C-alpha cells in the first residue's frame, strides 16, 4: 500500500519559517493537500492541489510538490499555527494520509 | 454555511456493527460537485481514510477495511451513513465525516469536516 511519511515533529520560533515535508514514492506525480488539526478540533484544509489555498487561509501558508516530496511552508509562523499537520494524496482511488507532524512554536 | 454532523452510538460491543450517520446542512448532498467521506482517528494517532460515496451511490473503500465497510446515502434526508461490521478494539477512534471536492484519485481534497464522534469498542 502507498505510504506518506512525515517527520514526527518540527519546532520553529515565532516569526520564522517552518517547513514540513511529506515523502512518498513519486509523490510529485500526484497532487498533495495539507490539513491543520489543533487539539480537540477537526482537521482544516490549508492547502490543496499542491499549492492552492482555500478561502480564509492566510497567505503565510504555501505548498510545493516535486520528486518524492511535498512541502508545506509556514512563513512568519505565529503561535496560533501550533498544531498537527497532515498531508494527503491519492493512491489510485484510495485516499492516503501522511503520518502527521506536530509543529511547536517555541 | 455548510455543516456536517455525525451521530450514532458511542459504545459498540466487539464483533458487532458500528453504525454512524452524517447529516449535511446548508447544502444539498445531491450536488454533483462533491462526494462524501468517512475518516477516523484513534486517540493520539493519525488520520485514516475509510471510504467515500458519490451522490449517485458509487463507493470507494480503503482496501484495508473494504471487507467490513458499507457507506450509503439517503438523499431524501440529506444524510450519508457508515457501517463497519465485526468491530474490535482496534476500531476505537474518533470518526469524522467530510465533504470532498475535486477529482478522487488526483485533485480531491476534503474541505468541510464534521466535529467528529468518538466510538469505543468494548464489552
Descriptive report:
Chain A is mainly beta and 106 residues long. Chain A contains no helices and 9 strands. In chain A, strands 1, 3, 4, 7, 8 and 9 form a 6-stranded mixed sheet that branches. In chain A, strands 2-6-5 form a 3-stranded antiparallel sheet, with no helix packed on it. Chain A is globular, with a radius of gyration of 13 Å. By secondary structure, chain B is an all-beta fold. Helices cover 0% and strands 51% of the residues of chain B. In chain B, the strands form 2 sheets. In chain B, strands 2, 4, 5, 6, 9, 10 and 11 form a 7-stranded mixed sheet that branches. In chain B, strands 1-3-8-7 form a 4-stranded antiparallel sheet, with no helix packed on it. The radius of gyration of chain B is 14 Å and the shape is globular. Chain B starts with a strand and ends with a strand. Chains A and B meet through strand 7 and strand 8 of A and strand 5 and strand 10 of B.
Layout of helices and strands:
The complex is a heterodimer of chains A (106) and B (123).
Chain A: E1 9-12, E2 18-23, E3 33-37, E4 44-47, E5 61-66, E6 69-74, E7 83-91, E8 94-97, E9 101-105
Parallel strand pairs in A: 1-9
Antiparallel strand pairs in A: 2-6, 3-4, 3-7, 5-6, 7-8, 7-9
Chain B: E1 3-7, E2 11-12, E3 18-25, E4 35-41, E5 48-54, E6 59-61, E7 69-74, E8 79-84, E9 93-101, E10 109-113, E11 117-121
Parallel strand pairs in B: 2-11
Antiparallel strand pairs in B: 1-3, 3-8, 4-5, 4-9, 5-6, 7-8, 9-10, 9-11
Amino acid at each position: 500500500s502507498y505510504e506518506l511519511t512525515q517527520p514526527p515533529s518540527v519546532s520553529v520560533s515565532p516569526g520564522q519559517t517552518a517547513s514540513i515535508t511529506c515523502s512518498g514514492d513519486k509523490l510529485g506525480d500526484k497532487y498533495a493537500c495539507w490539513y491543520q488539526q489543533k487539539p480537540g478540533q477537526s482537521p482544516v484544509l490549508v492547502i490543496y492541489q499542491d499549492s492552492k489555498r482555500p478561502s480564509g487561509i492566510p497567505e503565510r501558508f504555501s505548498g510545493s510538490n516535486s520528486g518524492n516530496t511535498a512541502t508545506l511552508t509556514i512563513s512568519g509562523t505565529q503561535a496560533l499555527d501550533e498544531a498537527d499537520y497532515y498531508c494527503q494524496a491519492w493512491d489510485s482511488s484510495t485516499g492516503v494520509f501522511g503520518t502527521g507532524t506536530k509543529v511547536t512554536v517555541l | 454555511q455548510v455543516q456536517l454532523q455525525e451521530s450514532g452510538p458511542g459504545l459498540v460491543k466487539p464483533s458487532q456493527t458500528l453504525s454512524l450517520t452524517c447529516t449535511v446542512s446548508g447544502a444539498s448532498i445531491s450536488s454533483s460537485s462533491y462526494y462524501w467521506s468517512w475518516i477516523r482517528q484513534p486517540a493520539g494517532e493519525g488520520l485514516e481514510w475509510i471510504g467515500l460515496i458519490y451522490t449517485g451511490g458509487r463507493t470507494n473503500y480503503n482496501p484495508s477495511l473494504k471487507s467490513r465497510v458499507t457507506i450509503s446515502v439517503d438523499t431524501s434526508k440529506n444524510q450519508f451513513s457508515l457501517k463497519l461490521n465485526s468491530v474490535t478494539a482496534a476500531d476505537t477512534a474518533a470518526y469524522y465525516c467530510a465533504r470532498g471536492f475535486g477529482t478522487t484519485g488526483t485533485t480531491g481534497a476534503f474541505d468541510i469536516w464534521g466535529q467528529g464522534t468518538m466510538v469505543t469498542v468494548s464489552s
